[in-house]
Amino acid sequence: MIINYEYLSTKIDEFLSTKTGREQKYWCGKLLKAEQLQFFGIYFGKGNIHVDGTEKSITCTKKVCFGADTVDLCGINTSNRTYFGEKFNCVV
């Protein structure tokens, strides 16, 4: 998979204005696979999706240990062009 950081950066802005109805800088919640693919072109997973407009990043987290902790499953930061998670072991 090749990650287009410029494309994702603009998609983050579009997502935040579409989902919140205004220029909000942060959103967290569940998104269906179809919604993730529609907005970002990438399926991050079933966990909570965190979209940060300030950092220009998208992270998927999942609760573990009966909700006491969360673990980051995967994510992309378009500001510093980094990614993590098994699903993004790819050429950038």
In short:
The chain has 92 residues and is an alpha+beta fold. It has helices at 5-20, 33-40; strands spanning 26-29, 48-52, 57-64, 69-77, 82-84. It has one domain.
Low-confidence stretches: none
CA-to-CA gap between the ends? Answer: 8 Å
The topology string of helices and strands comes to HEHEEEE
Strand proportion, as a percent range, falls in: 25-35%
Query: Care to count the β-strands?
Result: 5
Largest sheet: number of strands, sense, barrel closure? 5 strands, antiparallel
* Helical run tally: 2
> Taking Cα atoms only, what radius of gyration do you get, to the nearest Å?
13 Å
Q: Strands across the major sheet, in which order?
A: 1-2-3-4-5
Q: Find the structural class using helix and strand composition.
A: alpha+beta
Q: Identify the overall geometry.
A: globular
Q: What level of helicity do the residues show?
A: 25-40%
What's the structural domain tally?
1
Mean pLDDT: 80
Question: What does this 3D model show about the protein?
Answer:
With 92 residues, the protein is an alpha+beta fold. The protein has one domain. It contains 2 helices and 5 strands; from the N terminus they run αβαββββ. The protein has a 5-stranded antiparallel β-sheet, covered by helices on one side. β3 and β4 form a beta hairpin. It is globular and about 35 Å long. The mean pLDDT is 80.
